[in-house]
């Protein structure tokens, strides 16, 4: 075979292989989330989410914490797929009914408003799961916290998991090891756990979430010894032994609506409201060191929090042809 013939064969071989290589690359990217996902299909998507969140938080400062919490409670159950937003219907039992969400998860109307605005701008394009991720970031920034690029491209699930919501989300009364295990199951580590718990710097908690610390965590009827006694006495005035379950308490007594590191300073001072807050200081040396570092260095906390939020947002997303883009976040599409 002459040189020109060999060259011809090589070129033809490369041409034949090209579609295979190209196709492989597309498959690789199909499962990836990236911030520019809507740049062409819905260029104003992030701007629209931000404007609706801004209005909601201006109307009620507490809404920032509520929207941030929705993203957490969605991602820990079946991944970040907006399953939390589904109402009960047909074979679906809503995660809103779980012990963790019932009477406490809120902000669903804000998500509805965002979705309505996006459907008007670019129908059937932006997923409810991505709306949750963007609203969580915008809420954090509006409260004075760190900013980060949100990887996008999630799709919405067609089902929900009430049992997953009851069992997988870290609870206020869980032991340190149980909480850490729940983080590890979804691919998050101890640093993520301590950093993400910092979202409580702008949150509220119900009396029922910490009552046991005031009236006998160890079965002796006494205040939890890891809780500052004067702070506990103050809490008892509005969180009685029985009744008042829904009474709300700020989790950061210094700057309750500002996203900062005072939450960690409270823990160091034995004024972490929830058991799940305080055990990071009392039950593990590695987490105690992180709490100390975040209390001293807000920049470090912000950096870790932003990175952990991206990591959490990457928990088992539906991408490519899996799931759907819901037209209404509360229900699956009916074709």
UniProtKB/TrEMBL annotation:
Binding of Ca(2+) 1, residues: 74, 77, 79, 81, 83, 95
Positions of disulphide bridges: 42-122, 75-80, 128-329, 207-239
Binding site for substrate: 170
Residues the entry annotates as binding Ca(2+) 2: 201, 252, 255, 260
GO biological process, one term: response to oxidative stress
GO molecular function: heme binding; lactoperoxidase activity; metal ion binding
Cofactor note: Binds 1 heme b (iron(II)-protoporphyrin IX) group per subunit.
Residues annotated as signal peptide: 1-23
Places the protein is found: Secreted
PROSITE patterns to which the protein is assigned, alphabetical: PEROXIDASE_1, PEROXIDASE_2, PEROXIDASE_4
Keyword Disulfide bond (UniProt): yes
Keywords: Calcium, Disulfide bond, Glycoprotein, Heme, Hydrogen peroxide, Iron, Metal-binding, Oxidoreductase, Peroxidase, Secreted, Signal
Catalytic reaction equation(s): 2 a phenolic donor + H2O2 = 2 a phenolic radical donor + 2 H2O
Co-factor requirement: heme b; Ca(2+)
Residues that coordinate or bind heme b: 200
One GO cellular component, as annotated: extracellular region
EC number(s) stated in the UniProt entry for this protein: 1.11.1.7
Record-annotated Plant heme peroxidase family profile domain positions: 32-333
UniProt similarity note: Belongs to the peroxidase family. Ascorbate peroxidase subfamily.
Stated role: Removal of H(2)O(2), oxidation of toxic reductants, biosynthesis and degradation of lignin, suberization, auxin catabolism, response to environmental stresses such as wounding, pathogen attack and oxidative stress.
Protein name, entry field: Peroxidase
